[in-house]
Write a structure and sequence with these properties.
Elements lengths: L1 H10 L9 H4 L9 E3 L3 H13 L4 H11 L18 H17 L2 H21 L10 H9 L12 H19 L2 H18 L4 H7 L7 H12 L2 H9 L3 H8 L10 H18 L2 H17 L21 H4 L6 H17 L3 H15 L33 H8 L9 E4 L2 E4 L5 E5 L4 E7 L6 E8 L3 E9 L7 E4 L2 E2 L8 E9 L4 E5 L4 E6 L2 E9 L2 E7 L32 E2 L2 H8 L3 E2 L7 E2 L12 E4 L7 E3 L2 E4 L1 H24 E5 L4 H6 L3 E10 L2 E17 L6 E8 L7 E6 L2 E7 L9 E7 L10 E8 L4 E5 L1 E6 L2
Parallel strand pairs: 3-7, 15-20
Antiparallel strand pairs: 1-4, 2-3, 4-5, 5-6, 6-11, 7-10, 8-9, 8-11, 12-13, 13-14, 13-20, 14-18, 14-19, 16-17, 17-18, 21-30, 22-23, 23-28, 23-29, 24-27, 24-30, 25-26, 25-28
Amino acid sequence: MKKTLISLLLAGMPLGFVSAQSRLYDNEFDLGDVQLLDSPFKRALDLNTEVLLQYDVDRLLAPYLKAAGLEPKGESFPNWDGLDGHVGGHYLSALAIHYAATGNEEIKNRMDYMLGELAKCAVARGDGYVGGVPGGEVLWEEIRKGNVGKIWEWWVPWYNVHKMYAGLRDAWVYTGSKVGRNLFLSMCDWGLDIIAALPPNKMEEMLNNEFGGMNEVFADAYAMTGDKKYLDAARKFTHHQLYDGMLAGVDNLDNRHANTQVPKVVGFQRVAELADDGDYEKASEFFWDRVVNHRSLSIGGNSRREHFASASDAKSYVDDREGPESCNTNNMLKLTEGLFRMSPEAKYADFYERALFNHILSTVHPEHGGYVYFTSARPGHYRVYSKPNAAMWCCVGTGMENPGKYGQFIYTHNNDSLWVNLFMPSELNWREKGVKLTQSTDFPVSGNSTFTVSTDSTQRFSLQLRHPGWCEKMTVKVNGKPIKTKSMPSSYISIDREWADNDRIDIEMPMKVTIEELNHLPSYVSILRGPIVMGARLDTDAPLTGLIADDHRWAHIAHGPLVSVFDTPLLIGKRSEILKKLNGMKPVSGENLKFSVPGLFDGKYSNLTLEPFYNIHDSRYMMYWLSMTDKEYANYKDKARRDEENRLALDRITVDAVNTGEQQPEADHFMENKSSTSGNFNGEPWRDASNGGSFSYKMKTDGLSDLMLRLRYWGNETGNRKFGIYVDDTLIASENTSGKWQKDEFVEEEYSIPAGLLNGKESVRVKFVSDAGATAGGIFHVRLIKKR
């Protein structure tokens, strides 16, 4: 194996830039053939190219060298150390993507250096594995033998290695690197060996643990080689718990970890596309519809606390500080690109535009280039940003990649048809046609764009111009002459003709102002101008705690104090009257895309200005607004204000909290468990343990010794529910919740923690142990609070 790898890798040393992008995604133009012109996207791309060069590549490579038994040249990053290795794969993808988009030679040199070091790892191991999972050698052998339950003793290992699979693939896709291709396929063969003996029931059990897009990369290996063994592996990585529901048209997404599901469906789509499989296509389309049309916020992002909320819990979107996760939207755009390849419908481009402009663009800081993890939708909250060589989150990984792909979906092609999907200043070089198309636009300042054709000889092709869903009537002129069209919003206008040099196409799309309700919670709305979410900066005394994140495990969360929604600007009155005022918004002199709205707000917010949400950084902000008629507000405010005050009071005394039964909060708190299960009841997740089983969490104390434990239970439990509650293995309470409250509602119970168990500690382990034959829980929430 080692000799084979050495010969393959030597044969594949980089020989210059040759993209393979169109060979894997047949409707795309190579990134190098779409040049961004001056715009926020171009500035973000240029800045991100500089930021990528600030990362210490040897530290990113350290996990892979360690796993190969080689001496690392740098120390692994400390943050998310149980997931060591995942950002290195993202970084390799980002280098490949940004070299393709910019031609920057320093970026290419880094990519080649990385591939060379990874090749050394592959040769040293000799089995094709190029991964950085800490202690992974033991795990992979256990899985090969069928002991798939062992996977829960590691932190999402398939998810981890998927990032390197994707990085190696992308090195070939975007730069044509044969080293990347050979390493990728060798690692695919290693993966085939690991799962070869696993029967379907063992695969399904293993796939309950987050595995990223492993089905996608195996499908891509099939596309690259035509070898059916890889397509079979992609199908084997089908998680039927999700797939079967989607195929049957059953939305079973409530309270599921969102970014665990989206990459699976990216893989479903790739199988559908490459195998012409109607069932996989149907499942992919149903998932896309449910997430986009029923579970996404106005900015195109989805989830809170990394999980899909139920309809009954929609208010958590505007209550929680942890809003849509950037990774989710990155993957939803990838799924959208794939579905569009199969069926180029405007609905896909409409969503893509919404999510790209409002969420993805907003997650890169325009000055220092830091990346955002959670975009809080709570009125008056804020976001925090990463910095190079610290805070190595998953959204740092996708954040590294995003700017390089800004140009990927502006234009696509299919035979002799050219699709214009996005309105962004750019220049397309359609090499096969000998045509260049330049798009000049100040979008979204206005809805106007001009396209100019450059060609040495006339060329016939069909130009497909998107008529966006947000535009009622779109006007198109070719060389100054109007084109008659009966197109409807969310469709494409087809112009099939001979195109000559200097032909010009002008489009006008009026930017209408609209109000959009939050799904399942119409009392909260966003303001949009065309597809652009208009937000507002809030000047408050509340601090922006942790604005630039450090290496703390939870530094990706904006932990600063919450602001009461009643201390934020409200939209009170009839919607028709509010909309009338919004349509009278006036540009602020000397400001780019800032608007005043006379008469919309009173008092201290009378001078509040609206601007695109993607422009708002380093500030508390408004994305969603409480909006009611005067009568509705009069009936609502007293009780809601008390509830809000209680919620904020609890938040102020909270030191740490765990949403039990939710994947990421439990992983964040290093959960350990035995004979434990989780589920959902009345819209809330829970966890329990049975017959001597247990579960526990590592919780921070901030060095405080005057704390209490606050637990959330269902108030009408039955059966044998006797269990012990421990702090660092010391029993602090014996509990029996069966018949204790006898009421059908949630209850909160508090337990005192002896100061001696807390003195001098920054964290403790809180543990729940069931009696023999009994159940501990269910417990719906765990919280450490300061004594009042």
